[in-house]
Design brief:
By secondary structure, the chain is α/β, with parallel strands linked by helices. The chain is 41% helix and 14% strand. The chain has 15 helices and 15 strands. The protein starts with a strand and ends with a helix. The chain binds uracil. The site of uracil has 13 residues, from helix 10.
């Protein structure tokens, strides 16, 4: 029996070095006892540390980078079995051997006849690996040089369920947060038709079914009798206009449950306007970005930093103005771990217009500044170019003076430094005009 003592419960480097050393020596996972220094060990008593350097004659041992990334995260889990399970997984990379060398085998059940059409993609993507993709209709094999097709096979010919998939299922269940469940977003990223090939698929339905109860329990357990949790307002149906609220605070609460368009489903929260209710100037942007969506506040991300700097230079105190957006949910497309901004279309602007109109009704500012064309569209109901909006003195439906300028993110997208400086100077001029108008009013 080999015993490995790691320096702490999240000692990824210690686990990685020891696992590599053990794998190079061909040590069976069942032969290893993992523990954390200072924590009680196993029934057999004390732990002996292993030497860290591998003898030079041991063969090199490599695993895909993605596995190490997964292991680094999985080690944060509290399950005492995590080190042993990860070592078992690591050994599995060696176990997939054929007479011709290491081979990666995948099982898939496509709905359409796509094996031939999709094969070149996998050749380009995994050119240096040997792999086979087995499907019931047709199979395809790449040996690093030649692509070969063969008959389809039964699922039983593919590697079956094992501890690796079991570990993944446990990990998936542990990281599943019922309070952040977005069923529509999940379905659009991973449509149901692919679920049968996912080890975690068997968990998805029960986890979704339990999500409402589990998140209610989370909320309950956080509340105290002295400080009870406020109830979320009932979601509004898309058809009805927002009920007239008596204050910005009441309007904000109502907008928190807005379901007027589908954007709420993938966003984290409604990002409502903020600022004093007696603000003389209201700035209206387009929609919250990634950081605003997470923070729940408008203009706190990169565009917000440009906006803040320009406001300061123009002599406008951000704490004295009200800042909001034409659209109050983040619209994006997922790309891997990133969420890419998508411009709101007219339907999004129209669906959200009632909130902005009520903000202006309640605030009754003298000046409204549209930052970009989405705001112009929402505030005037008209489509025009920014050049033309910028040169006109417009008015909002409520009679406030409306000035239009660029959206600060426009400056972030300009690649040419001279052009950026020129456009920033124009933006500043617009803001200085706003400051002057506000003072003269
Ligand atoms: N862009 C906007 O239009 N609004 C924000 O709140 C952030 C970025």
């Amino acid at each position: 029996m080999r015993r490995i003592a790691l320096a702490g419960p999240t000692d990824f480097e210690g686990w990685r070095d020891a696992a590599r050393r053990l794998a190079r020596q061909g040590v069976d996972p069942a032969e290893v006892v993992w523990s954390v220094a200072g924590e009680s060990v196993d029934l057999f008593g004390a732990v002996s540390s292993e030497p860290t350097a591998a003898p030079p004659e041991e063969p090199a041992f490599a695993v895909p980078r993605g596995f190490l990334d997964l292991a680094e995260t999985a080690i944060l889990h509290a399950d005492p079995e995590r080190f042993a399970l990860l070592y078992k997984m690591l050994c599995r990379f060696r176990a997939v051997e054929t007479e011709a060398g290491e081979c990666f085998i995948a099982w898939f059940e496509p709905e359409h006849h796509i094996v031939e059409a999709a094969a070149p993609f996998f050749v380009r993507r995994f050119a240096s690996m040997r792999w086979s993709i087995l499907t019931p209709e047709r199979s395809v094999h790449w040996d690093g040089e030649v692509l070969r097709f063969s008959e389809g096979v039964d699922r039983s010919a593919a590697p079956g369920e094992d501890a690796l998939e079991d570990l993944w299922r446990r990990y998936y269940a542990a990281i599943f947060n019922p309070a952040r469940l977005k069923v529509q977003a999940m379905m659009s990223e991973m449509p149901r038709k692919y679920w049968r090939n996912l080890p975690e698929a068997s968990l998805i339905k029960p986890l979704i079914d339990q999500a409402e109860r589990r998140s209610a329990e989370m909320v309950q357990s956080a509340a105290t009798p002295e400080n009870p949790r406020p109830q979320r307002p009932a979601p509004a149906s898309p058809a009805e206009a927002p009920a007239a609220a008596g204050s910005i605070e009441a309007l904000r609460d109502e907008a928190a449950g807005c379901r007027r368009c589908p954007l709420w489903a993938s966003a984290t929260q409604t990002v409502f306007g903020e600022g004093p209710e007696d603000a003389g100037i209201v700035f209206v942007g387009e929609q919250p970005g990634d950081q605003e969506d997470l923070a729940g506040r408008p203009f706190v991300g990169p565009a917000g930093q440009v906006f803040d700097a320009a406001l300061r230079e123009a002599g406008i105190d951000r704490t004295r103005v009200y800042v909001t957006n034409a659209v109050k949910h983040f619209k994006f497309v997922p790309r891997g771990k990133r969420r890419l901004h998508q411009k709101p279309d007219v339907a999004d602007i129209v669906a959200c217009h009632g909130w902005l109109a009520q903000e202006l009704d309640l605030l009754r500012p003298r000046l409204v500044v549209a930052l970009g064309l989405t705001a112009v569209r929402s505030l005037t109901g008209k489509t025009m170019t920014l050049a033309s909006a910028r040169e006109q003195f417009l008015t909002t439906g409520g009679g406030a003076t409306l000035l239009a300028t660029i959206h600060p993110s426009f400056l972030l997208r300009l690649p040419d430094q001279n052009e950026k400086a020129r456009e920033y100077a124009r933006f500043l001029d617009d803001l200085k005009r706003v400051a002057a108008l506000a003072q003269s009013a």
